Amino acid sequence: MISPQQALKILGKRPTKSLGQHFLIHQATAGKIAAAIHPEPGDVVVEIGAGLGALTLPLSKSGARVIAVEVDSELAAFLHRQFRAKTGEETVGVECMDILKLDLVALHDRFKRKLKIIGNLPYNISSPVLFKLMEGADCIQEAVLMLQNEVAERVLAGPGSKDNSILSIMAAYHSERKRFMRIKPSQFHPPPKVDSQVICLTFRKCPLTPRVESPWLLQVVKAAFSHRRKTIKNSLLASNFPDLTPESVGTALDEAAIESRKRPESLGLEDVLRLARALSKKSEKR
Predict the structure, then answer these.
(1) Mind listing the pLDDT tens digit for each residue in 67-79?
(2) Which residues, in sequence order, are bridge partners of residue 176?
(3) CATH code assigned to 4-203
């Protein structure tokens, strides 16, 4: 595989800042990241932001079916030419589209198996993509994602951390989370201004208990974290959550064994699950 600098020169193209284009230049690092998804023959691997193919190349050698999603039409055409010439067959399918418009459920139904997701997520769409993956959690086996430090820390954060957030709670609900590696800016062209991390998400096969539907949990978490500097009770009351009163919130917090003076960032997944269940009971009684 030629270097990103060479490829861009051939294409007469510069990295597009609005698309967050930073191309991985170290093949050894790319190989490690690709291996982290454990690609095997028969797997369906969706690559987000395939770019110039740094991850696509090692993935294509695994025997897995690779669906390389790239929004930049010039890069998508480049990838199609490169991998059609290398393999002579469609082991790598290139989709020129916005990843946020990709139908994960349709892919799952088409291939009759759970998907593996990998990619280098641009900062400006990292959160929307992560929430999209959580919405399609039933269709996904695992994900290996390269993120800017700030976003990675939010995904991995636990109770008591300043980074604990809606993203932390929802990621913990849907998956087992772990940090895989850190990557310096020097490993990219052009180098970004911040460090990156690769994280691994192994999506849960069975729902956690108490059983709470994901859309309801997300609504509760958004309400709980709507005013981070307030106490959990005041944050809930100041949110747009319907039909809450000081009495009903106090009752729900008592039932969930959560002190009303706690800050939202101090809550763990188990706390929020109990709170969601308590508020669900209140909602069912209306």
Answers:
(1) 999 999 999 999 9
(2) 202
(3) 3.40.50.150
Contact in structure between 252 and 278 (CB atoms under 8 Å): yes
Asked whether residue 285 carries a pLDDT value surpassing 70, the answer given is: no
| Assigned token pair, 84 | 């059609």
Q: Which fold has domain 214-285?
A: Helicase, Ruva Protein; domain 3 (1.10.8)
CA separation for the pair 252, 43 (Å, rounded): 44
- For 259-280, the pLDDT digits (tens) are 999 999 999 999 999 999 999 9
List strands edge to edge, sheet with 175-183.
Answer: 92-95, 65-69, 44-48, 115-120, 140-148, 196-203, 175-183
The Cα-based distances of 43 to 58, 66, 159, 282 in angstroms read: 14, 8, 35, 43
Bridge-based pairing state of the strands 140-148 and 115-120: parallel
Task: Assess whether pLDDT exceeds 60 at residue 88.
Answer: no
Least confident of 1-10, 21-30, 144-153, 234-243: 1-10
In the chain, what are the domain boundaries? 4-203, 214-285
Say if residues 23 and 183 touch (Cβ distance below 8 Å): no
Q: What is the CA radius of gyration of the chain?
A: 21
Q: Which two tokens stand for residue 164?
A: 């604990």
